[in-house]
Design a protein that fits this description.
The structure is a homodimer of 207-residue chains. The first copy, chain A, has 207 residues and is an all-alpha fold. Chain A is elongated, with a radius of gyration of 20 Å. Chain A has two domains: 52 residues, Arc Repressor Mutant, subunit A (Orthogonal Bundle), CATH 1.10.10.60; 147 residues, Tetracycline Repressor, domain 2 (Orthogonal Bundle). The first copy, chain A, contains nine helices and no strands. At the A-B interface, helix 6, helix 8 and helix 9 of A face helix 6, helix 8 and helix 9 of B. The first copy, chain A, binds a DNA duplex (30 and 30 nucleotides) through helix 1 and helix 3.
Chain lengths: 207, 207
DNA sequence: AAAAAATATTGAACGCGTTCATTTTTTGAG
DNA sequence: CTCAAAAAATGAACGCGTTCAATATTTTTT
């Protein structure tokens, strides 16, 4: 009979997570009170805190899901053969941006980023940072793949350029979520413009 | 005598600002309570809120001072003649980083950045973003100056490259303030490595 | 100078995330 | 089945940023 406790626990975990994501989407992260989440999940406030370290930790589940999916999609893009630098980059980056609002609103992204900067020692921040690094590495991998195919000059340091480009992608994403007016297409266009000179200079063909 | 009110006001403003910055430096931003700041300034909590919109707004004064100074120093660097791209970039960026901890601690930077992302509609965030854009523009100006001198290829889009490089500088600075272990020299070295390929490709001489 | 209007100060109260001592439920041994 | 120990649930209480109705002070009007 010893599965009872574990089963209840799993059930509550799921109910709380469901309630939280529902409320975050409905009223926004800030306006969703722990009390409301707990009530919707049918537990007390104290129980919420037995299951999650704090409110911010609830976001991480969603952020993780988002980024894991986009990483998988990115791998598929890298695996294909590309004959030009700029279009390959645009495709990968475009995938990041297109997918970004699938599970998270701009407000939720702002909160997640804000938390990861404000409290870098928390598990939340560390997981967030780790996901960022995997994305950065993926851009490096794309450049390297292009170099292997002879599309990118042999002497280029792929990691250096990849990190540079990704950091720009990331910073522009911050600008994007800070501005409710800005849409994904505008974002993609701006980043493509910023990438263009580097993409061009990296090419052998542009010689 | 109608100057009485204005004089009292200016005096209180100064006292509150002084108390806040003193406490921020002494015990950190989070641990400095409004109650303590108010007490040290010899006013009530309510009065604090008559002078400042909120706690975060107090940071902006310090951030502004910091960035204004660094912008002035940057202009002086750009005004000089540079014969190579990488060293010129390193000097400007190095100045940004070297100056960054003059008035603000890493924790204060984290708080400022975090606030500017979390609440983009506040005056705080808007002023912060404006300062960022001026810094970004300064990097663009440096590239343009190098291009005018014939050090950078004529066909390069200076704004595109400048924004790209600055966004990397900024993102790396976020990593820097998130990591209490990291020192300025390590930061500068990493950014120089990331810049190197782009700097090299931009050069005419590397042809 | 007194009264009225304008402006500034105040601190108790509020909202909400978080904690923790107490109570309730579950478990396994005898 | 009984009961003591372990685990989980609970909600009142706390901390701190922020608000606001009441009070005090300064300026203007007469």
């Amino acid at each position: 009979m010893s599965g009872l406790r574990a089963q209840k626990k799993a059930d509550k975990n799921r109910r709380i997570l469901e309630a939280a994501t529902t409320l975050f989407r409905k009223v926004g992260y800030d306006s969703a009170r722990i009390e409301d989440i707990a009530e919707m999940a049918g537990v007390s406030v104290g129980t919420f805190y037995n299951y999650f370290k704090n409110k911010g930790d609830m976001l991480m589940a969603t952020v993780s899901m988002e980024v894991e999916e986009v990483l998988a999609a990115g791998d598929a893009i890298i695996a294909r053969d590309h004959d030009e630098v700029a279009p390959a980059l645009s495709e990968l980056i475009g995938k990041y941006y297109d997918h970004s609002l699938t599970y998270l609103s701009k407000e939720m992204w702002r909160t997640a980023m804000s938390l990861s900067i404000a409290q870098p020692e928390t598990p939340f921040s560390k997981r967030y940072t780790a996901l960022d690094h995997r994305l950065s590495k993926q851009v490096c991998d794309l450049i390297r793949a292009l170099q292997k195919r002879g599309v990118v000059r042999r002497e280029v340091d792929c990691d250096a350029v990849g990190e540079l480009l990704f950091n720009n992608v990331n910073m522009m994403f911050i600008e994007f979520v800070k501005d409710e007016e800005m849409d994904v297409d505008g974002l993609k266009a701006e980043v493509a413009r910023q990438n263009a000179p580097v993409a061009r200079l990296m090419c052998l063909t542009a010689e």
